Amino acid sequence: MRLLLFGGTGAMGTLLAREYLWVYRGSSLVIYVRDPAKVPQDIAEDPNVVIVQGELDDMDRLSLAMHGVDAVITALGPTGRKGPFYPSNTPIADAYIRIMVTMKGHGVRRLIALTTPSVRDPEDQFNLPMAFLRKTFATIAPNVVKDIIAIGRVIRTQREELDWTIIRLALHSSDHSDPENNCEVVAGYMGDGRTNTFSSRHGAAAFIIQELDRREWIWKSPILSKP
């Protein structure tokens, strides 16, 4: 297996990198980053890691990173820290389009994309806490939500050409207070009686790396949360 990871310097991305290197020991991990200095030292120094520096609009660098890859995981996402100052276009969704074009050019079909429950799914049912969170976030950072929704839309147009899974992560809670129980996650849909509003980054990372081979959620958009 040779995996290409986007967003590998964020909190979720670094967990995914470490989980992949542990589960797929001896396999290659390509991390595409703007600033290689932000890759944690233990990951950067792993002999199975290849770091490719580039921007998300640099098609030549994207193509270089995609060479020989079997699957792609994207932990990219718009940041809510800019709030009302987030651009009114959809820069991250546009980056996904370029990534998917590059995937198809290299014959790579498997894509796992991380996003939030702001992306809706036909299987979702009404859930008051989640609906409140969606409404609040959309009010505080409407352009961020616009970009997140666009990410889901552009990925779903590729059903014939890519084997995608959209992982919608619930709110992250600490994994430190109860290490024996806090890392478990379940996959489901809003209002199904299984999922709730909180998730575990560690549990989500383990689930996502397992999904590379399990392929149980092809062309689906599960929410990951604590039970």
Describe the structure.
By secondary structure, the protein is α/β, with parallel strands linked by helices. The chain has one domain: Rossmann fold (3-Layer(aba) Sandwich), CATH 3.40.50. Helix content is 36%, strand content 19%. The chain has 7 helices and 10 strands. Strands 3-2-1-4-5-6-10-8 form an 8-stranded mixed β-sheet, with helices on both faces. It has a two-stranded parallel ribbon with strand order 7-9. Helix 1 packs across helix 7 and helix 4 packs parallel to helix 6. The longest helix has 15 residues. The two termini are 31 Å apart. About 2% of the residues have low confidence. InterPro entries: NAD(P)-bd_dom, NAD(P)-bd_dom_sf, Polyketide_Oxido-like. One of its GO terms (molecular function) is oxidoreductase activity, acting on the CH-NH group of donors, NAD or NADP as acceptor. Belongs to the avfA family. This is NAD(P)-binding domain-containing protein.
> What can be said about the biggest beta sheet?
8 strands, mixed
Oligomer: single chain
Number of domains: 1
Query: Quick check: average pLDDT?
Result: 91
Determine and state the CATH class.
Alpha Beta
| Beta fraction | 15-25%
Give, in order, the helices and strands.
Answer: EHEHEHEHEHHEEEEHE
CATH topological fold name = Rossmann fold
What low-confidence regions span 5 or more consecutive residues with pLDDT below 50? 176-180
CATH architecture: 3-Layer(aba) Sandwich
Query: What is the share of helical residues?
Result: 25-40%
Query: Outline, from the CA principal axes?
Result: globular
Question: What gap, in angstroms, lies between the N and C termini?
Answer: 31 Å
- Number of helical segments with 4 or more residues: 7
Radius of gyration: 17 Å
Task: Give the name of the CATH superfamily.
Answer: NAD(P)-binding Rossmann-like Domain
Lateral arrangement of strands in the main beta sheet:
3-2-1-4-5-6-10-8
Would you tell me the structural class of the helices and strands? alpha/beta
Count of strand segments: 10
Family: Belongs to the avfA family.
Domain NAD(P)-binding: 7-213
GO molecular function: oxidoreductase activity, acting on the CH-NH group of donors, NAD or NADP as acceptor
InterPro entries: NAD(P)-bd_dom (IPR016040), NAD(P)-bd_dom_sf (IPR036291), Polyketide_Oxido-like (IPR051606)
